[in-house]
Amino acid sequence: MDIRNIVTGDSCEMLVSGRIDGAGANQLEVEILSAIGSGSKSIYVNLDGATFLCSAGLRVLLQYWRQMKNSQRVLLATRPSPEVDAVLATSGFREVLVEKV
Amino acid sequence: MQIVLKNQPREKQKVVQGLEQFGRDHRLPAAVVQAADLALEEHLTNLMNYSLADNREHQIKVRFALASHFIIEVEDDGPPFNPLEVPAVDTTMPLDRRPIGGLGIHLMRRFMDEIEYHSEGGKNVLRMQKRLPA
Questions:
Q1: CB-CB under 8 Å, A56 with B45
Q2: Chain A to chain B, count of Cβ pairs less than 8 Å apart?
Q3: Which residue, A49, A47, A63, A23, is CA-closest to A100?
Q4: Which of B37, B38, B100 sits opposite A62 (nearest CB)?
Q5: CA dihedral A86, B47, B37, A51 (to 10 degrees)
Q6: pLDDT tens digit string along B58-70?
Q7: B41: nearest CB among A54, A58, A90
Q8: By CA distance, what is A66's nearest residue in B?
Q9: Whole-prediction pTM value?
Q10: What is the DSSP letter of B107?
């Protein structure tokens, strides 16, 4: 899995490509923590290039979506690939997490 | 096809590669392979992180077969663990109040058509089936 960050002011878009499996979820969490530590107030996890999402990835999205929301910041998943969108929808995540940016 | 792996997360890659190869060899639809990939990731992660996480080396066997369905069997030598006994999660609950965790089994149930568990000779066997398009 690869993650490329585009930082604009205090907003960070993470372009994720490949598999968000257990190891990928750990990598995503490290990147999110780094962005939070760098002062990002908005984090957009762009899932257009993600080909796979498992429950470990969902856990990371939920945990930091909630943490950011509780501190008046935002983390959203955007532009899910069809494979990833199916997992988000089945898990009840799609409506709440996904917005286009 | 049978793949044998140890209870180390990096070993899951063998299963991913074996599944891709089996899918190519038998021209399985991409959606069937993706569903199996997800169910296997979830079950193997549960085994490695919980029931087989005792600092001992364990062997996990993953078997693929085709009949009217695509059949996947996962056999492990850990303590009895029936994932079907894990309570279902409520995916309609607002995310603000949702427990973190428990979605792995939910995804397995939703993406596979049938899942059965039995214990055989001291081994756990999970058999999952995915219907093939007519």
A1: yes
A2: 58
A3: A47
A4: B100
A5: 60
A6: 999 999 999 999 9
A7: A54
A8: B96
A9: 0.93
A10: H
Is B9 an 8 Å CB contact of chain A?
yes
Nearest C-alpha of chain B: how many angstroms from A54? 6
Domains of chain A (ranges, CATH numbers): 2-97 (3.30.750.24)
Quick one: tokens of A39? 């002062």
Q: What is the rounded radius of gyration, in angstroms, for the C-alpha atoms of chain A? A: 12
Is A90's CB within 8 Å of B107's CB?
Answer: yes
The pLDDT, as a whole number, for residue A99 is 57
Tell me if A54 sits within 8 A of A28, measured CB to CB.
Answer: no
Token readout for B17 is 């590669």
Residue B28 belongs to domain spanning: 2-131
Q: How many domains does chain B have?
A: 1
Closest-CA residue of chain B to A23:
B9
Distance CA A93, CA B38 (A): 17
Q: How far apart are CA B134 and CA B124, in angstroms?
A: 32
As for the ipTM of the complex, it is 0.92
